[in-house]
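Q: I'm a student working through a structural biology exercise. My instructor gave each of us a protein and asked us to get a predicted structure, then write a short paragraph describing it. Mine is POP1 protein. I'm not confident about reading structure output yet, so if you can add a plain explanation after the tokens, that would really help. Here is the sequence I was given:
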Amino acid sequence: SKKQAEKAVHQKKEQSKTKCRKARRRHINLVAEFNHRQRKNIWLETHIWHAKRFHMVKKWGYFLGNSPTEKSYRACYRAMTKHCLLQDLSYYCCLELKGKENELLKQLARICSIDTGLTFQEACCLSGRFEGSLNLYRADCYPEDMLGPVTFIWKPRDGSENRQLWIWVHPALKQDILRELKAIFQCTEPEEMCITEPVTTSIQEENQVEAVTSLGNKRKKEDKEGEKAVPVKKIIGDGTRDPFQSYSWISQTTGIAISDRSMEILRYRLIGPSSHFVLTETLKAASVQTV
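A: Happy to help. First, here is the predicted structure for POP1 protein. I'll explain a few features afterward.
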């Protein structure tokens, strides 16, 4: 009994010297764990930062920060009025339209009205210099059957008649607006299929992790060649899109292509007098090389 007690103390000392408690409890593959934990509710890129500081809520298929855990209202107000405050709006859905400019404007005019203000044809917005905002309606139904407010950005002209338009919609309105856009442009044929399989892949990764973990002795996961495997963060769609369904559609009659770019294009909002300074210090212009 005395020997067993000494042996237990000795083993405990050895174990405590190897790693701290936080390291011992850490998942062997963080990426596999994250993919598993966001199978039902998608995480934004800033999820970890918000989860440590905010009360998180499940809304529209996402995990979003709802309110701060500490009284930081004065700090936020001070940042908005004197410095810069950043918000993560990546949960907003992005619908991308590609095709001839005349055809795009002709059909888009059916779901908005000049009586409400700006349209997709506004000169300052059509050039790509400014973002526009308007209310969408079901085709030829104005002033009834409003779908909801959206913002849009045209890609600047490149000399071709083909244009590219990004429409940003709230996730609660996404399905209705996408259905209406597909109807007016007659986009019925799937152009691309989402080939990622997040659920099965996450389960397979976890099984592999469990297989290489035994009796507290953790070994690094290896691939077929015996080398250290590098975990990959998988694109698993978003809270409003089935990852196994198509995410891009094309019309053979109009030539217009519609793509669902939700969670593929991140969006942040900067508020405050120092916003422009933060952007200029963060973003650096790339040198254009002509061959």
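A: Here are two points you could use in your paragraph. The CA atoms of residues 72 and 78 lie 10 Å apart. The two ends are 81 Å apart (CA to CA). It's a good idea to check both against the output above yourself.
Q: Great, thank you!
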